[in-house]
Every structure is written in structure tokens, then in C-alpha cells.
Specification:
Strand content: 5-15%
Number of helices: 12
Largest sheet: 5 strands, mixed
Oligomer: single chain
Number of strands: 5
Structural class: alpha+beta
Order of helices and strands: HHHHEEEHEEHHHHHHH
Helix content: 40-55%
Mean pLDDT: 89
């Protein structure tokens, strides 16, 4: 099970938009980040709570979790509650639904050697549920037309279509740290049509290492993103603008730059990170050198510091109110709402400029200026 598919479901957004990136990325070592490790642990904890609630054999993983904290506990708990609610609904509509956790899903009939792992699959007459847990808080993940979920849907249909009378495939992103639970539904016929007309031709190109390189948001998780020439050329197009003072740029020029500047900054940071990693291996870049960066003071022994300060009669500890998430977990959702519901408010977020395709409601400019006038005070 340690094998990774060249055309995996989790990387499908990238290889479907940039087919030759699949073979290119295969040349790079697979480096696991701390964020990925934390996400894996959150998945493990959520799976444990589901199994425990259903009376299935399960070993408590908490003593061995490196990143375990109150937030992970809360996220895993509400994920388990959500899955159990779906299972209960399926049981009310079907005599014999089945639940599979961390299920290997094979979609190689459309994608060469393609397979992935579905976090939760609930098969029943009527609705086939796919739930994908996302622990990350950085990238907001949409369920709509999400190729990873659709590949999981195809793999689950391969297992259960014909066994159950499936009328729709409900594919859900469960992303608790972004308060994001979104579901995208397709009929099996619609999913098969996408697989035949869009997925298979693109997957065949990607597996052969053919097609055109293309830049986009999917570059973020590409292993070749720092040295990709196509990405560099795309970002360097901004150099075509004569960057004088912003008031001298036309509004349409600023609009174009806004659409590219985040990608440009991301690309520049990737270049810097790559250059540093290579320099630490001995590569020399003309005009550059490696030095020690700034650092902050730290206690060498926190217990000794606390004992020393306490001996003087002073209190070395800070005391503050628990966070909302921690208190909600301590009291339980119902009790929390009864006691503190009237004392909780969510202030308006700071105005931010986003593409018109963003689903958030547009602010009324006049009132927004008044509401947020004190943000910079």
C-alpha cells in the first residue's frame, strides 16, 4: 500500500490541467511536510472515533499522535458525528447500507494505474456518499466539479453500482478548520459521461507524458514548481508592464496585474526556497551566500525558569480565558449555546479584494468604508 499512483486522485487537479506535469513530478523525491503529517494524524483520529462509536475494533491513537491538540480533537469529533449522521440517514432509507473507511478505490478503467483512498464511503440504495476530510486551513477546497472527489466517485461506483440501486453520487468536502462542508451531486450517468469525454482522454495524455504545460493554482503542489520554465515565463510576463507609480497605471492594467500578482509572489517565494535548499547542498549562486538568519531568545529550561521566578514571590504564568473552540468542546455544543450563545459574536472581516468568481457576497462600498474605517487605527 506504500505505492503511489502516477495519476493519483489527490493530484488530479494538477495533471488534468497540466498533463505533462505528471511524468515531470515523478522525477522528484516525494517529500512529506509537517502539514501532511498533521493531516494524516487527524484522519487517523477521525477514523478511530467513527469505529469506536460503531463498536468496531479500534485502537486509540492519541498517545502516539505528534500533532494532537484541542483543535484536532474537535475537528475529528465533528467529522465523526457528520459521518455517523449520514450513515443513520442511509439506514433509514436502505435495509443494508455499508460503510467503508480509508477505502482503496480503483478507477484504472479510466485512468491508467489509477487508484486512491476514500476517507469515507457509504453505499446504499438511492445515494452513494463520498466524504473527503481536509484538515488544512490554508486552501479553501470546493466540492463542485472537484476532480479528486469525482475520481473517488468513479471508484466507488465500480465497487457498488449494480449491487445497490444508486440514483446519485453525493461527494462532500469536510474541511472543519475553514467551516467548510460542501457537497456536489451527480447522477452515475453524468459521472460516467465526464469520465468518458474529459477524464480518460486527459489521463491518457498525462500517463504518456504528453500535452501542454499550463500554469494555474494547481502549481502550488507541483514538485517542479520552482524550476518549471513554463511557470517562469508566465510570471515574467508581468515584466512587460512599465511599473511607474500606481496612479499612472490604467485601471484595466491594474486589473490584469491583480489577477497575476498572487501567482507571481508565490513563484518568487518558491524560487527562493528552492535556491536555499540547493545552496545548503553546496550549490553556489553567483552573488549570493548563506548566512544565519534572525532568531528569538528562548528559555533553555522552562521548569527551572518557573521555579526561579516563583521563589521570588512573582507569578511567571499568564492566565487567560480559554478559546471558543476549547470551551465549546469542554461544555458540549448544546450547553455551550445555552450558556454563551448570547455572548458570542463574529465581527466583520477586514475588506479584501478577490476575483469576481469568489462566492462571497460583495460588500456595499459606501457602508463598507464606514464599517471598516477603524481597521487601521
Amino acid at each position: 500500500m506504500g505505492k503511489h499512483a502516477l495519476l493519483s486522485a489527490s493530484s488530479s487537479e494538477r495533471w488534468m490541467n497540466c498533463p505533462p506535469s505528471a511524468r515531470l513530478c515523478a522525477k522528484y523525491a516525494d517529500i512529506t511536510s509537517s502539514y501532511a503529517a498533521e493531516g494524516t494524524e487527524a484522519h487517523t483520529l477521525g477514523e478511530f472515533y467513527i469505529r469506536h462509536a460503531l463498536g468496531l475494533p479500534a485502537q486509540d491513537p492519541r498517545p502516539s499522535l505528534q500533532y494532537y491538540n484541542e483543535e484536532m480533537e474537535y475537528c475529528a469529533t465533528i467529522y465523526a458525528e457528520y459521518v455517523l449522521e449520514l450513515l443513520e440517514k442511509a439506514r433509514s432509507e436502505c435495509a443494508d447500507p455499508v460503510l467503508h473507511l480509508e477505502q482503496r478505490l480503483d478507477f484504472s478503467n479510466y485512468v491508467p494505474e489509477g487508484f486512491g483512498t476514500g476517507d469515507t464511503v457509504i453505499a446504499a440504495d438511492g445515494t452513494l456518499h463520498i466524504v473527503d476530510y481536509k484538515h488544512g486551513s490554508g486552501v479553501f477546497v470546493e466540492a463542485e466539479a472537484n476532480s479528486q472527489l469525482m475520481l473517488y466517485g468513479l471508484g466507488a461506483l465500480r465497487m457498488f453500482d449494480g449491487i445497490y440501486s444508486i440514483e446519485k453520487v453525493a461527494m462532500t468536502v469536510f474541511q472543519p478548520r475553514r467551516q467548510n462542508i460542501s457537497t456536489y451531486e451527480l447522477t452515475p450517468a453524468e459521472l460516467y459521461q465526464w469520465a468518458d469525454e474529459v477524464l480518460k482522454p486527459t489521463a491518457d495524455l498525462a500517463f504518456a507524458g504528453k500535452g501542454e504545460f499550463k500554469c494555474g493554482s494547481w502549481c502550488q503542489f507541483c514538485r517542479a514548481k520552482a524550476t518549471c520554465r513554463t511557470r517562469a515565463e508566465e510570471n515574467m510576463k508581468l515584466a512587460a508592464y512599465d511599473f511607474e507609480e500606481p496612479p499612472l497605471l490604467a485601471d484595466d492594467e491594474i486589473a490584469v496585474i491583480l489577477g497575476k500578482v498572487d501567482g507571481l509572489v508565490s513563484w518568487a517565494n518558491d524560487i527562493k526556497d528552492y535556491a536555499l535548499s540547493e545552496a545548503l547542498k553546496g550549490t553556489e549562486f553567483d552573488g549570493w551566500k548563506v548566512v544565519a538568519g534572525r532568531s528569538n531568545r528562548k528559555y533553555s529550561d522552562e521548569n527551572a525558569v518557573a521555579e526561579t521566578v516563583t521563589a521570588t514571590g512573582a507569578d511567571p504564568y499568564e492566565h487567560k480565558l480559554m478559546g471558543i473552540t476549547a470551551l465549546e468542546k469542554l461544555l458540549g455544543k448544546k450547553r455551550f449555546e445555552e450558556l454563551l450563545g448570547g455572548l458570542i459574536h463574529k465581527p466583520a472581516g477586514k475588506p479584501v479584494l478577490v476575483p469576481i468568481t469568489d462566492k462571497r457576497e460583495q460588500l456595499h462600498i459606501t457602508s463598507a468604508a464606514d464599517d471598516f474605517a477603524d481597521h487601521d487605527n
